[in-house]
C-alpha cells in the first residue's frame, strides 16, 4: 500500500538466517512483544533528555509516539524507525535558559529547526545527497557533533553532579558496566537500567543514611533534602493529558502543554543541532539499508524530512525534538525483524504511557545525582561521535584545510566563546562554533592551493596516495550502539 500499512504475514518458525522485511509482519502476538522491546530500548534516553532540557517528559513520550507514526507514514513504511527525544538540542537549550529564555522560546526555536530540517530533507530528495556532502563534508559534521557534546560538560559539573556526587559516581559506573560488559539487548538499554539502579540506590540511601545536604539544580545555597522526592507521584492521576505544570525532583517548574514563541537569538542557538540530526538520520538510513540489503538512498531525503516534520509536530504543543534512535537499530539487528508493524505498536504503547500523569510524575522525580551519573557518560559519547565520524570517513588532519578551521570552531564551541554584536544580540558557544567551523572551512578550501583541495576532496595524497573523506556519515543519538556494534 502507498502508506506502507499493508504487511504480508510471515508464518511459521523463524530460522537463524530468516529475516522479516519492513513490509512483512509476524502474527500480532509476537509483533506486540517486539513492539514492547522497542519501547524499553528507547525509553531511558527519550525521557532523560526532556528532563535535562526542562521540558515535560510525559508529553515528550506521548509526542514521540505520534511523531513515529507520522515518520512511518511519510517514508511509506520503507525505513523502520522510532523517533525518540534528540540529545543534539540539549546544549542550545541550556544556552537559551542561561540567557533567561523560557520553555516557550525553547520550543519555538526547536520548531524552527524542525522546519529547516524538513526543508533540507525535501531538497535532498529532489537534488540528491551529493549536495549535502558538499556543504557539510564529514570533517565539518564531525566537528559540530563534537562541540555540541563537549559544550555540555559544565551542565554536568555545575548542576547535576553536585546534587549527589556519590550516587552520580556509582550510576556512572553502572552505566559503563551495562554498556560494555553485556552483549545484545542489555547493553542497548543501559541508560534505562542505570535510571532504575540510581533511583533505587537513592531510595535506599534515604532510608539508611538519611537526607543529604547539597545544592539542588537552580538553587544557590545548599539545603537538606531527600535524594528521591516522590511527593508528587501520589497526587497524580493515572490517566489524563500531561498537566499544565509539573515539578522536577529539585523543585524546578516544568511547563506542560504550551504554545511556542519565537526569538531570533534562541533560534540561532539551537540551529546547529540540525547538522547533528542530518548526520544521525543519514547514519540510520545507511545502517538499515546495510542490515536489510535494500538500497534506501532514494529514501534518504524523505527520512530526513519526516524527522523534521516529527520535530515540528512535537514542539508545536510544547514537546521535545525528535530523532531516529540507535537503540532500536540494535533491537532490529538482534531479532532480524525489521517490520514497521512493530514500530506502530511501540508508538501506540508510548502514547498510552504519555496519557498517564502518574507516569509523568514518576519520571520527573528522578534524582539529580542519577542524572549526573548518566549525563556524564551521554554528553561525552555525543562529543566522541564527532571523532567517530572523522575516523569512519578517513578525514585527513595533516591537511590544514581540515585542521585549522575546525580546530577554531571546536574551541569556540566547547569554551563557550562569545561574540557580542549589541546589548541584545550575542553569538556564543555552539552557534558561533558551528558558524566558524562551516564558514572557515569553505573559506579555507576556496583560498587553498589546488593540491590541498585535491587532498581534501580525496583525489590524491602525498606520493599519489588516495585520501578519501567519503560520504558515510554514521551518527548515533547516544553512542551506545552503532551499525557495527549492533551486529555483535
Quick overview:
The chain has 488 residues and is mainly alpha-helical. The chain has 21 helices and 10 strands.
Low-confidence stretches: 460-488
Helix content: 55-70%
- State the major sheet: 2 strands, parallel
Q: Using the CA coordinates, give the radius of gyration.
A: 22 Å
**Which percent band covers the strand fraction?**
5-15%
Based on secondary structure, the structural category is mainly alpha
Q: Give the overall silhouette.
A: globular
Oligomer: single chain
Distance between the termini: 34 Å
Notes on the protein architecture:
This protein is mostly helical. The chain contains 21 helices and 10 strands. A hairpin with an 8-residue loop joins strand 4 and strand 5.
Write the layout of secondary structure elements.
Blueprint: E1 8-9, E2 24-25, H1 28-53, H2 57-74, E3 83-85, H3 90-98, H4 103-127, H5 130-135, H6 138-150, H7 153-160, H8 165-181, H9 185-188, H10 190-208, E4 212-214, E5 223-225, H11 231-235, E6 245-247, E7 253-255, H12 264-270, H13 273-292, H14 300-315, E8 322-324, H15 326-335, H16 340-354, H17 357-364, H18 368-392, H19 400-414, E9 418-420, E10 426-428, H20 429-447, H21 450-456
Parallel strand pairs: 1-2
Antiparallel strand pairs: 3-8, 4-5, 6-7, 9-10
Helix pairs in contact: 1-2, 1-10, 1-16, 2-14, 2-16, 3-12, 4-12, 4-13, 4-14, 6-13, 6-18, 6-19, 6-20, 7-18, 8-10, 8-18, 10-18, 13-14, 19-20
Give descriptors for this structure.
488 residues; two-stranded parallel sheet; single chain; two-stranded antiparallel sheet; mainly alpha; 21 helices; disordered C terminus
Amino acid at each position: 500500500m502507498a502508506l506502507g500499512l499493508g504487511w504480508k504475514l510471515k508464518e511459521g518458525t523463524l530460522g537463524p538466517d530468516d529475516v522479516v522485511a519492513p513490509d512483512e509482519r509476524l502474527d500480532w502476538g509476537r509483533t506486540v512483544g517486539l513492539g514492547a522491546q522497542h519501547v524499553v530500548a528507547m525509553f531511558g534516553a527519550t525521557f532523560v533528555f526532556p528532563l535535562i532540557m526542562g521540558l515535560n517528559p510525559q508529553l515528550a513520550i506521548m509526542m514521540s509516539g505520534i511523531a513515529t507514526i507520522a515518520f512511518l507514514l511519510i517514508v511509506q513504511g520503507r525505513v523502520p524507525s522510532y523517533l525518540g527525544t534528540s540529545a543534539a538540542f540539549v546544549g542550545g537549550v541550556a544556552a537559551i535558559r542561561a540567557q533567561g529564555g523560557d520553555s516557550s522560546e525553547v520550543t519555538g526555536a526547536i520548531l524552527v529547526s524542525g522546519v529547516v530540517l524538513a526543508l533540507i530533507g525535501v531538497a535532498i530528495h529532489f537534488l540528491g545527497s551529493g549536495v549535502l556532502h558538499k556543504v557539510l563534508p564529514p570533517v565539518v559534521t564531525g566537528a559540530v557533533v563534537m562541540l555540541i557534546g563537549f559544550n555540555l560538560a559544565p551542565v554536568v559539573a555545575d548542576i547535576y553532579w553536585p546534587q549527589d556526587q556519590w550516587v552520580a559516581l556509582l550510576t556512572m559506573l553502572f552505566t559503563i558496566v551495562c554498556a560494555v560488559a553485556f552483549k545484545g539487548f542489555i547493553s542497548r538499554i543501559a541508560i534505562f537500567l542505570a535510571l532504575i539502579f540510581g533511583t533505587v540506590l537513592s531510595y535506599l540511601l534515604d532510608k539508611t543514611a538519611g537526607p543529604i545536604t547539597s545544592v539542588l539544580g537552580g538553587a544557590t545555597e545548599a539545603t537538606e533534602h531527600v535524594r528521591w522526592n516522590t511527593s508528587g507521584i501520589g497526587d497524580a492521576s493515572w490517566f489524563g493529558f500531561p498537566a499544565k505544570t509539573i515539578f522536577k525532583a529539585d523543585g524546578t517548574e516544568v511547563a506542560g502543554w504550551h504554545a511556542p514563541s519565537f526569538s531570533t537569538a534562541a533560534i540561532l542557538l539551537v540551529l546547529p543541532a540540525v547538522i547533528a540530526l542530518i548526520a544521525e538520520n543519514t547514519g540510520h538510513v545507511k545502517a538499515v539499508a546495510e542490515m536489510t540489503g535494500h538500497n534506501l538512498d532514494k529514501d534518504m531525503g524523505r527520512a530526513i524530512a519526516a524527522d523534521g516534520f516529527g520535530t515540528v509536530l512535537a514542539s508545536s504543543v510544547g514537546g521535545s525534538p525528535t530523532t531516529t534512535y540507535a537503540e532500536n537499530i540494535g533491537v532490529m539487528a538482534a531479532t532480524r525483524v525489521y517490520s514497521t508493524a512493530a514500530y506502530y505498536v511501540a508508538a501506540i504503547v508510548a502514547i498510552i504511557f504519555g496519557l498517564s500523569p502518574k507516569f509523568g510524575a514518576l519520571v520527573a522525580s528522578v534524582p539529580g545525582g542519577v542524572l549526573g551519573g548518566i549525563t556524564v557518560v551521554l554528553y561525552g559519547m555525543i562529543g566522541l561521535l564527532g571523532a567517530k565520524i572523522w575516523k569512519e570517513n578517513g578525514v585527513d588532519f595533516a591537511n590544514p584545510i581540515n585542521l585549522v578551521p575546525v580546530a577554531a570552531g571546536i574551541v569556540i564551541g566547547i569554551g563557550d566563546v562569545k561574540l557580542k554584536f549589541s546589548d541584545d544580540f550575542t553569538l556564543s558557544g555552539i552557534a558561533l562554533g558551528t558558524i566558524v567551523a562551516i564558514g572557515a572551512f569553505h573559506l579555507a578550501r576556496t583560498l587553498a592551493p589546488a593540491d590541498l583541495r585535491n587532498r581534501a576532496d580525496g583525489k590524491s595524497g602525498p606520493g599519489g596516495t588516495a585520501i578519501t573523506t567519503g560520504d558515510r556519515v554514521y551518527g548515533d543519538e547516544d553512542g551506545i550502539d552503532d551499525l557495527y556494534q549492533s551486529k555483535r
